[in-house]
Amino acid sequence: MSPRVRRLTLALLAGLALLTAGVGASAAAADDVAGRAVPYSTIEGTGSTWSELIVQKWIADVAANGMQVVYTGGGSSKGRKDFAQSTNDFAISEIPYQGVDEQGNQDKSDRPYAYLPIVAGGTAFTYQIKVGGQLVRNLRLSGETIAKIFTGKITNWDDAQITKDNNGRTFPSLPITPVVRSDGSGTTAQFTTWMDSQYPSIWRPYFGRSGLTSYYPTKSGSRMKAQAGSDQVMNTVKGFAGNGSIGYVEYSYPVNANFPVVKVLNKAGYYVEPDRYNTAVALTAAKINPTTLTQDLRGVYVNADPRAYPISSYSYMIIPTSATDKRMTTSKRQTLADFIYYSLCSGQTNAGDYGYSPLTLNLVKAGFQQVAKLKQADPAVNLTNRDVRSCNNPTFDGKNPNHNVLADKAPQPEACDKVGAGPCGKVTGTNQPAAGGSTGGAGTKGGAATGGGAAGGPAGTPGTVDPETGATVGSPDSSGATGGGDGTVYANPTLAADRSGDQRPFGVLAVLELLALVIIPGVASSVLRRRRHARSGA
Protein backbone atom coordinates (compact mmCIF):
# COMPACT_ATOMS: atom_id res chain seq x y z
CA MET A 1 0.00 0.00 0.00
CA SER A 2 1.40 3.42 -0.95
CA PRO A 3 2.00 6.06 1.74
CA ARG A 4 -0.88 8.16 0.37
CA VAL A 5 -3.36 5.26 0.46
CA ARG A 6 -2.12 4.32 3.90
CA ARG A 7 -2.65 7.89 5.17
CA LEU A 8 -6.18 8.01 3.73
CA THR A 9 -7.04 4.64 5.24
CA LEU A 10 -5.73 5.60 8.68
CA ALA A 11 -7.63 8.88 8.55
CA LEU A 12 -10.88 7.10 7.73
CA LEU A 13 -10.32 4.54 10.48
CA ALA A 14 -9.60 7.32 12.96
CA GLY A 15 -12.83 9.02 11.96
CA LEU A 16 -14.73 5.79 12.41
CA ALA A 17 -13.19 5.38 15.85
CA LEU A 18 -14.38 8.85 16.85
CA LEU A 19 -17.86 8.12 15.52
CA THR A 20 -17.92 4.84 17.42
CA ALA A 21 -16.94 6.62 20.62
CA GLY A 22 -19.71 9.13 19.98
CA VAL A 23 -22.24 6.35 19.57
CA GLY A 24 -21.14 4.78 22.84
CA ALA A 25 -21.38 8.15 24.59
CA SER A 26 -24.86 8.70 23.17
CA ALA A 27 -25.99 5.28 24.32
CA ALA A 28 -24.53 5.88 27.78
CA ALA A 29 -26.27 9.25 27.95
CA ALA A 30 -29.55 7.63 26.95
CA ASP A 31 -29.13 5.05 29.69
CA ASP A 32 -28.48 7.84 32.20
CA VAL A 33 -31.71 9.55 31.13
CA ALA A 34 -33.64 6.28 31.50
CA GLY A 35 -31.99 5.54 34.82
CA ARG A 36 -28.70 3.76 35.26
CA ALA A 37 -29.12 -0.02 35.28
CA VAL A 38 -29.13 -1.77 38.63
CA PRO A 39 -26.34 -4.37 38.90
CA TYR A 40 -27.36 -8.00 38.63
CA SER A 41 -27.14 -10.72 41.28
CA THR A 42 -27.51 -14.48 40.85
CA ILE A 43 -31.06 -15.78 41.26
CA GLU A 44 -32.09 -19.38 41.86
CA GLY A 45 -35.25 -21.23 40.87
CA THR A 46 -36.66 -24.76 41.12
CA GLY A 47 -39.72 -26.63 39.90
CA SER A 48 -41.25 -27.81 36.64
CA THR A 49 -39.43 -30.17 34.31
CA TRP A 50 -42.29 -29.71 31.78
CA SER A 51 -40.92 -26.26 30.93
CA GLU A 52 -37.28 -26.83 31.91
CA LEU A 53 -35.85 -27.22 28.38
CA ILE A 54 -36.91 -23.75 27.26
CA VAL A 55 -36.04 -22.18 30.62
CA GLN A 56 -32.48 -23.50 30.34
CA LYS A 57 -32.28 -22.06 26.82
CA TRP A 58 -33.31 -18.64 28.13
CA ILE A 59 -30.76 -18.88 30.95
CA ALA A 60 -27.99 -19.54 28.42
CA ASP A 61 -29.17 -16.57 26.33
CA VAL A 62 -29.20 -14.00 29.14
CA ALA A 63 -25.84 -15.12 30.53
CA ALA A 64 -24.26 -13.13 27.69
CA ASN A 65 -25.90 -10.04 29.14
CA GLY A 66 -24.46 -10.51 32.60
CA MET A 67 -27.45 -12.24 34.19
CA GLN A 68 -26.75 -15.35 36.24
CA VAL A 69 -29.82 -17.54 36.67
CA VAL A 70 -29.67 -21.05 38.15
CA TYR A 71 -32.62 -23.38 37.63
CA THR A 72 -33.07 -26.93 38.91
CA GLY A 73 -36.08 -29.08 38.02
CA GLY A 74 -37.38 -31.62 40.50
CA GLY A 75 -41.05 -31.15 39.67
CA SER A 76 -43.70 -28.50 40.19
CA SER A 77 -44.54 -29.70 43.71
CA LYS A 78 -40.93 -29.29 44.78
CA GLY A 79 -40.78 -25.81 43.27
CA ARG A 80 -43.89 -24.67 45.15
CA LYS A 81 -42.61 -26.20 48.40
CA ASP A 82 -39.16 -24.59 48.02
CA PHE A 83 -40.77 -21.21 47.38
CA ALA A 84 -43.01 -21.50 50.44
CA GLN A 85 -39.94 -22.35 52.54
CA SER A 86 -37.96 -19.41 51.07
CA THR A 87 -35.20 -21.64 49.70
CA ASN A 88 -35.46 -20.26 46.15
CA ASP A 89 -36.00 -16.88 44.49
CA PHE A 90 -38.69 -18.11 42.09
CA ALA A 91 -40.53 -21.32 41.27
CA ILE A 92 -42.12 -22.73 38.11
CA SER A 93 -45.24 -24.89 38.22
CA GLU A 94 -48.03 -26.05 35.93
CA ILE A 95 -50.61 -25.71 38.70
CA PRO A 96 -51.09 -23.16 41.50
CA TYR A 97 -50.95 -23.85 45.22
CA GLN A 98 -53.74 -26.27 46.17
CA GLY A 99 -53.97 -25.42 49.88
CA VAL A 100 -53.80 -29.11 50.80
CA ASP A 101 -52.55 -31.61 48.25
CA GLU A 102 -54.10 -34.99 47.46
CA GLN A 103 -51.83 -36.66 50.03
CA GLY A 104 -53.05 -34.37 52.79
CA ASN A 105 -49.85 -32.32 52.84
CA GLN A 106 -49.86 -28.55 53.11
CA ASP A 107 -49.53 -26.91 49.70
CA LYS A 108 -49.65 -23.19 50.33
CA SER A 109 -47.29 -20.28 50.88
CA ASP A 110 -47.34 -17.58 53.52
CA ARG A 111 -44.60 -15.87 51.53
CA PRO A 112 -46.42 -13.24 49.37
CA TYR A 113 -46.30 -14.11 45.67
CA ALA A 114 -47.78 -13.63 42.23
CA TYR A 115 -48.27 -16.07 39.35
CA LEU A 116 -47.28 -15.17 35.81
CA PRO A 117 -47.36 -17.31 32.64
CA ILE A 118 -44.04 -18.05 30.95
CA VAL A 119 -44.62 -20.56 28.12
CA ALA A 120 -47.35 -22.70 26.58
CA GLY A 121 -47.19 -26.24 25.28
CA GLY A 122 -48.92 -29.54 24.77
CA THR A 123 -48.72 -32.61 26.98
CA ALA A 124 -47.61 -35.30 24.54
CA PHE A 125 -47.79 -39.08 24.67
CA THR A 126 -44.55 -40.54 23.40
CA TYR A 127 -44.28 -44.27 22.81
CA GLN A 128 -42.19 -47.13 21.46
CA ILE A 129 -43.86 -49.76 19.29
CA LYS A 130 -41.72 -51.76 16.88
CA VAL A 131 -43.08 -53.82 14.01
CA GLY A 132 -40.53 -55.93 12.15
CA GLY A 133 -37.79 -54.08 13.97
CA GLN A 134 -39.06 -50.70 12.73
CA LEU A 135 -40.41 -47.95 15.00
CA VAL A 136 -44.06 -47.03 14.37
CA ARG A 137 -44.21 -43.24 14.05
CA ASN A 138 -47.84 -42.43 13.18
CA LEU A 139 -49.98 -43.85 16.01
CA ARG A 140 -53.44 -42.34 16.62
CA LEU A 141 -55.45 -42.58 19.86
CA SER A 142 -58.69 -41.09 21.14
CA GLY A 143 -58.81 -39.48 24.56
CA GLU A 144 -60.93 -42.33 25.84
CA THR A 145 -58.32 -44.87 24.71
CA ILE A 146 -55.54 -42.89 26.42
CA ALA A 147 -57.53 -42.71 29.66
CA LYS A 148 -58.14 -46.47 29.56
CA ILE A 149 -54.42 -47.19 28.92
CA PHE A 150 -53.35 -45.11 31.94
CA THR A 151 -55.97 -46.67 34.22
CA GLY A 152 -55.27 -50.29 33.29
CA LYS A 153 -58.43 -50.93 31.25
CA ILE A 154 -56.50 -51.41 27.97
CA THR A 155 -53.35 -53.46 28.43
CA ASN A 156 -52.26 -54.68 24.97
CA TRP A 157 -51.49 -52.89 21.70
CA ASP A 158 -53.70 -55.32 19.76
CA ASP A 159 -56.79 -54.05 21.60
CA ALA A 160 -59.82 -53.52 19.34
CA GLN A 161 -60.24 -49.89 20.48
CA ILE A 162 -56.68 -49.06 19.36
CA THR A 163 -57.37 -50.75 16.03
CA LYS A 164 -60.53 -48.65 15.66
CA ASP A 165 -58.63 -45.41 16.40
CA ASN A 166 -56.25 -46.33 13.59
CA ASN A 167 -59.05 -47.01 11.07
CA GLY A 168 -58.61 -50.79 11.07
CA ARG A 169 -54.83 -50.84 11.18
CA THR A 170 -53.71 -53.56 13.57
CA PHE A 171 -50.75 -53.79 15.90
CA PRO A 172 -49.04 -56.92 17.21
CA SER A 173 -49.89 -58.55 20.50
CA LEU A 174 -47.58 -56.53 22.75
CA PRO A 175 -48.20 -55.68 26.43
CA ILE A 176 -48.58 -51.95 27.13
CA THR A 177 -46.24 -50.45 29.73
CA PRO A 178 -47.51 -47.02 30.87
CA VAL A 179 -44.68 -44.80 32.15
CA VAL A 180 -45.77 -42.16 34.68
CA ARG A 181 -44.10 -39.68 37.02
CA SER A 182 -43.03 -40.79 40.49
CA ASP A 183 -42.43 -37.25 41.79
CA GLY A 184 -44.89 -34.43 42.40
CA SER A 185 -45.42 -33.28 38.84
CA GLY A 186 -47.29 -30.47 37.12
CA THR A 187 -47.39 -32.62 34.01
CA THR A 188 -49.22 -35.30 36.00
CA ALA A 189 -51.55 -32.65 37.39
CA GLN A 190 -52.39 -31.35 33.90
CA PHE A 191 -52.95 -34.87 32.54
CA THR A 192 -55.15 -35.97 35.44
CA THR A 193 -57.12 -32.70 35.36
CA TRP A 194 -57.96 -33.46 31.73
CA MET A 195 -59.00 -37.05 32.53
CA ASP A 196 -61.09 -35.91 35.49
CA SER A 197 -62.86 -33.33 33.31
CA GLN A 198 -63.38 -35.39 30.17
CA TYR A 199 -63.43 -39.03 31.33
CA PRO A 200 -64.59 -39.00 34.96
CA SER A 201 -66.22 -42.45 34.69
CA ILE A 202 -62.81 -43.91 33.78
CA TRP A 203 -60.51 -41.78 35.96
CA ARG A 204 -62.41 -41.47 39.24
CA PRO A 205 -62.90 -45.21 39.93
CA TYR A 206 -59.16 -45.70 39.34
CA PHE A 207 -58.09 -42.69 41.46
CA GLY A 208 -60.68 -43.38 44.14
CA ARG A 209 -62.08 -39.85 44.15
CA SER A 210 -62.59 -36.85 41.89
CA GLY A 211 -60.03 -34.20 41.03
CA LEU A 212 -56.45 -33.92 39.92
CA THR A 213 -53.27 -35.33 41.42
CA SER A 214 -49.62 -34.37 41.14
CA TYR A 215 -48.57 -37.87 42.24
CA TYR A 216 -49.73 -40.49 39.75
CA PRO A 217 -51.32 -43.49 41.52
CA THR A 218 -49.85 -46.85 40.56
CA LYS A 219 -51.53 -50.16 41.23
CA SER A 220 -49.87 -53.30 42.54
CA GLY A 221 -49.44 -55.97 39.87
CA SER A 222 -49.69 -53.61 36.90
CA ARG A 223 -46.97 -53.09 34.28
CA MET A 224 -46.91 -49.34 35.05
CA LYS A 225 -43.49 -47.81 35.68
CA ALA A 226 -42.91 -44.60 37.66
CA GLN A 227 -39.93 -42.33 36.95
CA ALA A 228 -38.75 -39.03 38.43
CA GLY A 229 -38.71 -36.10 36.00
CA SER A 230 -39.72 -35.74 32.37
CA ASP A 231 -36.25 -36.67 31.15
CA GLN A 232 -36.40 -40.06 32.93
CA VAL A 233 -39.87 -40.77 31.53
CA MET A 234 -38.51 -40.00 28.06
CA ASN A 235 -35.39 -42.13 28.59
CA THR A 236 -37.48 -45.07 29.79
CA VAL A 237 -39.80 -44.95 26.79
CA LYS A 238 -37.01 -44.69 24.23
CA GLY A 239 -34.67 -47.10 26.00
CA PHE A 240 -33.48 -50.53 24.88
CA ALA A 241 -36.21 -52.25 26.94
CA GLY A 242 -38.89 -49.69 26.07
CA ASN A 243 -40.77 -51.58 23.34
CA GLY A 244 -44.49 -51.45 24.20
CA SER A 245 -44.18 -48.43 26.51
CA ILE A 246 -46.04 -45.10 26.42
CA GLY A 247 -45.46 -42.07 28.66
CA TYR A 248 -46.61 -38.45 29.04
CA VAL A 249 -44.18 -35.53 28.74
CA GLU A 250 -44.14 -32.03 27.30
CA TYR A 251 -43.85 -32.18 23.49
CA SER A 252 -40.32 -30.74 23.59
CA TYR A 253 -38.90 -33.99 25.02
CA PRO A 254 -39.80 -36.32 22.11
CA VAL A 255 -38.93 -33.52 19.65
CA ASN A 256 -35.43 -33.30 21.10
CA ALA A 257 -35.15 -37.10 21.29
CA ASN A 258 -36.40 -37.53 17.68
CA PHE A 259 -39.12 -39.82 18.96
CA PRO A 260 -42.77 -40.18 17.85
CA VAL A 261 -45.85 -38.87 19.63
CA VAL A 262 -49.51 -39.92 19.56
CA LYS A 263 -51.91 -37.94 17.41
CA VAL A 264 -54.82 -37.31 19.78
CA LEU A 265 -58.44 -37.11 18.62
CA ASN A 266 -59.98 -33.66 19.10
CA LYS A 267 -63.57 -32.47 19.33
CA ALA A 268 -63.74 -31.76 15.58
CA GLY A 269 -62.94 -35.39 14.75
CA TYR A 270 -59.28 -34.97 13.71
CA TYR A 271 -56.19 -36.64 15.14
CA VAL A 272 -53.62 -33.89 15.79
CA GLU A 273 -50.09 -33.51 17.11
CA PRO A 274 -49.18 -31.05 19.92
CA ASP A 275 -47.03 -28.72 17.80
CA ARG A 276 -46.80 -24.97 18.41
CA TYR A 277 -49.67 -24.18 16.01
CA ASN A 278 -52.22 -26.69 17.28
CA THR A 279 -51.41 -25.68 20.85
CA ALA A 280 -51.82 -21.97 20.06
CA VAL A 281 -55.19 -22.63 18.43
CA ALA A 282 -56.41 -24.75 21.37
CA LEU A 283 -55.44 -22.12 23.95
CA THR A 284 -57.59 -19.45 22.32
CA ALA A 285 -60.40 -21.15 24.29
CA ALA A 286 -58.60 -20.90 27.64
CA LYS A 287 -60.19 -18.74 30.33
CA ILE A 288 -57.82 -16.79 32.54
CA ASN A 289 -58.58 -15.68 36.09
CA PRO A 290 -57.79 -11.94 35.81
CA THR A 291 -56.67 -11.73 39.42
CA THR A 292 -54.43 -14.77 39.81
CA LEU A 293 -53.76 -15.61 36.12
CA THR A 294 -54.58 -19.25 36.87
CA GLN A 295 -56.00 -21.14 33.91
CA ASP A 296 -59.37 -22.76 33.26
CA LEU A 297 -58.76 -25.23 30.42
CA ARG A 298 -62.20 -26.81 30.11
CA GLY A 299 -62.83 -24.88 26.91
CA VAL A 300 -59.46 -26.00 25.55
CA TYR A 301 -60.35 -29.66 26.03
CA VAL A 302 -63.43 -29.31 23.81
CA ASN A 303 -62.23 -26.64 21.37
CA ALA A 304 -64.08 -27.48 18.13
CA ASP A 305 -61.41 -26.07 15.81
CA PRO A 306 -60.03 -28.94 13.64
CA ARG A 307 -56.48 -27.83 14.47
CA ALA A 308 -56.81 -27.75 18.27
CA TYR A 309 -54.70 -30.09 20.41
CA PRO A 310 -56.93 -30.85 23.41
CA ILE A 311 -54.31 -31.24 26.17
CA SER A 312 -52.69 -27.81 25.85
CA SER A 313 -51.74 -25.59 28.79
CA TYR A 314 -49.05 -23.24 30.07
CA SER A 315 -46.54 -22.95 32.91
CA TYR A 316 -46.55 -20.39 35.72
CA MET A 317 -43.61 -18.65 37.31
CA ILE A 318 -44.15 -17.86 40.99
CA ILE A 319 -42.39 -14.66 42.04
CA PRO A 320 -41.98 -12.98 45.46
CA THR A 321 -43.85 -9.68 45.86
CA SER A 322 -43.22 -8.56 49.44
CA ALA A 323 -41.04 -5.52 50.10
CA THR A 324 -39.64 -7.38 53.13
CA ASP A 325 -38.94 -10.73 51.44
CA LYS A 326 -35.85 -12.03 53.22
CA ARG A 327 -34.22 -13.48 50.09
CA MET A 328 -34.70 -10.51 47.80
CA THR A 329 -32.54 -7.44 47.18
CA THR A 330 -32.79 -4.68 44.60
CA SER A 331 -30.25 -6.39 42.36
CA LYS A 332 -32.03 -9.74 42.64
CA ARG A 333 -35.36 -8.16 41.78
CA GLN A 334 -33.76 -6.42 38.81
CA THR A 335 -32.27 -9.69 37.58
CA LEU A 336 -35.62 -11.42 37.97
CA ALA A 337 -37.48 -8.60 36.19
CA ASP A 338 -35.11 -8.56 33.23
CA PHE A 339 -35.03 -12.36 32.98
CA ILE A 340 -38.83 -12.41 32.89
CA TYR A 341 -38.87 -9.60 30.30
CA TYR A 342 -36.59 -11.60 28.02
CA SER A 343 -38.61 -14.77 28.62
CA LEU A 344 -41.94 -13.10 27.76
CA CYS A 345 -40.61 -11.32 24.69
CA SER A 346 -37.56 -12.27 22.62
CA GLY A 347 -37.24 -15.59 24.43
CA GLN A 348 -40.59 -16.66 22.98
CA THR A 349 -39.01 -16.71 19.49
CA ASN A 350 -37.20 -19.88 20.61
CA ALA A 351 -40.27 -21.57 22.06
CA GLY A 352 -41.58 -23.14 18.84
CA ASP A 353 -38.23 -24.61 17.86
CA TYR A 354 -37.97 -26.26 21.26
CA GLY A 355 -41.40 -27.90 21.03
CA TYR A 356 -43.36 -25.28 22.97
CA SER A 357 -45.87 -22.63 21.86
CA PRO A 358 -45.23 -18.90 22.38
CA LEU A 359 -47.45 -16.96 24.76
CA THR A 360 -50.12 -14.75 23.24
CA LEU A 361 -50.59 -11.02 23.77
CA ASN A 362 -53.17 -11.25 26.56
CA LEU A 363 -50.91 -13.50 28.64
CA VAL A 364 -47.83 -11.33 28.02
CA LYS A 365 -49.74 -8.19 29.07
CA ALA A 366 -50.88 -9.96 32.22
CA GLY A 367 -47.31 -11.07 32.87
CA PHE A 368 -46.06 -7.47 32.75
CA GLN A 369 -48.69 -6.49 35.30
CA GLN A 370 -47.23 -9.10 37.63
CA VAL A 371 -43.64 -7.97 36.99
CA ALA A 372 -44.71 -4.46 38.03
CA LYS A 373 -45.18 -5.84 41.53
CA LEU A 374 -41.39 -6.21 41.80
CA LYS A 375 -41.08 -2.43 41.41
CA GLN A 376 -43.96 -1.86 43.82
CA ALA A 377 -41.97 -3.85 46.37
CA ASP A 378 -38.77 -1.90 45.57
CA PRO A 379 -38.98 1.42 43.64
CA ALA A 380 -35.26 1.16 42.78
CA VAL A 381 -36.04 -1.61 40.27
CA ASN A 382 -35.78 -0.20 36.73
CA LEU A 383 -38.62 -1.21 34.39
CA THR A 384 -38.03 1.51 31.78
CA ASN A 385 -38.81 0.23 28.26
CA ARG A 386 -39.79 -3.15 29.66
CA ASP A 387 -43.39 -3.38 28.58
CA VAL A 388 -45.56 -4.79 25.81
CA ARG A 389 -44.76 -1.89 23.44
CA SER A 390 -41.12 -2.95 23.21
CA CYS A 391 -41.85 -6.67 23.36
CA ASN A 392 -40.81 -8.79 20.37
CA ASN A 393 -42.96 -11.90 20.50
CA PRO A 394 -43.72 -14.14 17.49
CA THR A 395 -47.46 -14.26 18.15
CA PHE A 396 -47.80 -10.46 17.99
CA ASP A 397 -49.18 -8.59 14.99
CA GLY A 398 -47.70 -5.11 14.69
CA LYS A 399 -50.92 -3.72 13.20
CA ASN A 400 -53.59 -5.53 15.24
CA PRO A 401 -52.83 -6.17 18.92
CA ASN A 402 -55.72 -8.64 19.20
CA HIS A 403 -54.44 -10.82 16.36
CA ASN A 404 -52.69 -14.06 17.37
CA VAL A 405 -50.37 -14.68 14.42
CA LEU A 406 -49.63 -18.32 15.27
CA ALA A 407 -53.28 -19.28 15.76
CA ASP A 408 -54.44 -17.53 12.60
CA LYS A 409 -51.67 -18.94 10.42
CA ALA A 410 -51.86 -22.49 11.80
CA PRO A 411 -52.39 -24.96 8.93
CA GLN A 412 -55.47 -27.17 8.77
CA PRO A 413 -55.05 -30.91 9.43
CA GLU A 414 -54.78 -33.22 6.47
CA ALA A 415 -57.80 -35.21 5.27
CA CYS A 416 -56.11 -38.47 6.24
CA ASP A 417 -56.14 -37.34 9.90
CA LYS A 418 -59.94 -37.32 10.06
CA VAL A 419 -61.86 -40.10 11.79
CA GLY A 420 -62.63 -42.82 9.23
CA ALA A 421 -59.73 -41.83 6.96
CA GLY A 422 -56.04 -42.61 6.78
CA PRO A 423 -54.08 -42.97 8.91
CA CYS A 424 -51.53 -40.59 7.43
CA GLY A 425 -48.05 -41.95 6.91
CA LYS A 426 -46.33 -38.78 8.11
CA VAL A 427 -43.73 -39.09 10.85
CA THR A 428 -44.67 -37.46 14.17
CA GLY A 429 -42.41 -35.80 16.72
CA THR A 430 -40.60 -33.72 14.07
CA ASN A 431 -41.98 -30.35 15.23
CA GLN A 432 -43.24 -29.64 11.71
CA PRO A 433 -46.79 -28.44 10.92
CA ALA A 434 -49.36 -30.85 9.58
CA ALA A 435 -49.82 -29.32 6.13
CA GLY A 436 -47.24 -28.85 3.36
CA GLY A 437 -44.15 -30.73 2.32
CA SER A 438 -43.80 -34.47 1.79
CA THR A 439 -46.15 -36.66 3.79
CA GLY A 440 -44.42 -39.92 3.00
CA GLY A 441 -46.20 -43.16 2.25
CA ALA A 442 -49.66 -43.51 3.77
CA GLY A 443 -50.18 -46.28 6.28
CA THR A 444 -52.35 -49.00 4.79
CA LYS A 445 -55.44 -50.41 6.42
CA GLY A 446 -54.58 -53.63 8.21
CA GLY A 447 -50.84 -52.93 8.06
CA ALA A 448 -48.59 -51.37 10.67
CA ALA A 449 -47.02 -48.41 8.94
CA THR A 450 -43.70 -47.46 10.44
CA GLY A 451 -43.44 -43.84 9.46
CA GLY A 452 -43.01 -42.27 6.08
CA GLY A 453 -41.26 -39.23 4.73
CA ALA A 454 -40.24 -36.28 6.83
CA ALA A 455 -43.06 -33.94 7.71
CA GLY A 456 -42.56 -30.82 5.65
CA GLY A 457 -39.43 -29.33 4.22
CA PRO A 458 -36.74 -27.74 6.37
CA ALA A 459 -37.26 -24.19 7.49
CA GLY A 460 -36.22 -21.75 4.80
CA THR A 461 -36.77 -24.09 1.84
CA PRO A 462 -37.64 -21.83 -1.15
CA GLY A 463 -41.23 -22.11 -2.32
CA THR A 464 -42.62 -23.36 1.00
CA VAL A 465 -44.97 -21.30 3.13
CA ASP A 466 -43.93 -20.16 6.58
CA PRO A 467 -47.02 -20.88 8.71
CA GLU A 468 -45.96 -18.31 11.32
CA THR A 469 -45.99 -15.41 8.85
CA GLY A 470 -47.98 -16.64 5.88
CA ALA A 471 -45.17 -15.55 3.57
CA THR A 472 -43.64 -17.73 0.87
CA VAL A 473 -40.00 -18.42 1.71
CA GLY A 474 -37.83 -16.52 -0.72
CA SER A 475 -40.45 -13.80 -1.23
CA PRO A 476 -39.83 -10.17 -0.19
CA ASP A 477 -41.97 -10.75 2.91
CA SER A 478 -39.74 -13.50 4.19
CA SER A 479 -36.27 -12.34 3.23
CA GLY A 480 -34.02 -9.91 5.00
CA ALA A 481 -35.98 -8.71 8.04
CA THR A 482 -38.03 -11.25 9.88
CA GLY A 483 -41.28 -9.40 9.38
CA GLY A 484 -44.27 -11.36 8.23
CA GLY A 485 -46.15 -9.04 5.92
CA ASP A 486 -48.63 -8.25 8.70
CA GLY A 487 -46.56 -5.53 10.37
CA THR A 488 -44.80 -7.87 12.75
CA VAL A 489 -41.08 -7.36 13.31
CA TYR A 490 -39.29 -9.89 15.47
CA ALA A 491 -36.37 -9.28 17.76
CA ASN A 492 -32.84 -10.49 17.37
CA PRO A 493 -32.76 -13.05 20.18
CA THR A 494 -29.00 -12.64 20.65
CA LEU A 495 -29.61 -9.22 22.27
CA ALA A 496 -30.30 -11.06 25.45
CA ALA A 497 -32.32 -8.78 27.69
CA ASP A 498 -33.65 -6.16 25.25
CA ARG A 499 -32.25 -3.52 27.58
CA SER A 500 -32.95 0.07 26.64
CA GLY A 501 -30.48 1.31 24.01
CA ASP A 502 -29.05 -2.12 23.19
CA GLN A 503 -30.03 -2.10 19.52
CA ARG A 504 -29.24 1.53 18.66
CA PRO A 505 -25.43 1.38 18.92
CA PHE A 506 -25.32 -1.96 17.10
CA GLY A 507 -27.37 -0.51 14.25
CA VAL A 508 -25.12 2.53 13.88
CA LEU A 509 -22.00 0.41 14.08
CA ALA A 510 -23.33 -1.81 11.34
CA VAL A 511 -23.74 1.25 9.10
CA LEU A 512 -20.22 2.45 9.94
CA GLU A 513 -18.78 -0.99 9.16
CA LEU A 514 -20.56 -0.96 5.82
CA LEU A 515 -19.18 2.48 5.04
CA ALA A 516 -15.70 1.29 5.92
CA LEU A 517 -16.02 -1.74 3.67
CA VAL A 518 -17.27 0.38 0.77
CA ILE A 519 -15.34 3.66 1.12
CA ILE A 520 -11.85 2.45 2.01
CA PRO A 521 -11.41 0.01 -0.90
CA GLY A 522 -12.98 2.57 -3.24
CA VAL A 523 -10.60 5.34 -2.21
CA ALA A 524 -7.63 3.02 -2.43
CA SER A 525 -8.68 1.80 -5.87
CA SER A 526 -9.13 5.38 -7.13
CA VAL A 527 -5.71 6.44 -5.96
CA LEU A 528 -4.05 3.41 -7.56
CA ARG A 529 -5.83 4.04 -10.87
CA ARG A 530 -4.61 7.66 -10.95
CA ARG A 531 -1.04 6.55 -10.26
CA ARG A 532 -1.15 3.94 -13.05
CA HIS A 533 -2.60 6.55 -15.43
CA ALA A 534 0.14 9.00 -14.52
CA ARG A 535 2.83 6.38 -15.20
CA SER A 536 1.35 5.39 -18.58
CA GLY A 537 1.25 9.01 -19.65
CA ALA A 538 4.84 9.64 -18.62
UniProtKB/TrEMBL annotation:
Residues 385-395 have a biased composition (Polar residues). Pfam families: PBP_like_2. Gene3D superfamilies: Periplasmic binding protein-like II. PANTHER family: PHOSPHATE-BINDING PROTEIN PSTS (PTHR42996). It comes from the Bacteria. CDD domains: PBP2_PstS (cd13565). Residues 385-409, 431-487 are annotated as: Disordered. Keywords: Membrane, Signal, Transmembrane, Transmembrane helix. This is Phosphate ABC transporter substrate-binding protein PstS. The chain crosses the membrane at residues 506-528. The keyword Membrane applies. The lineage of its organism: Bacteria, Bacillati, Actinomycetota, Actinomycetes, Propionibacteriales. It comes from Nocardioides ginsengisoli.
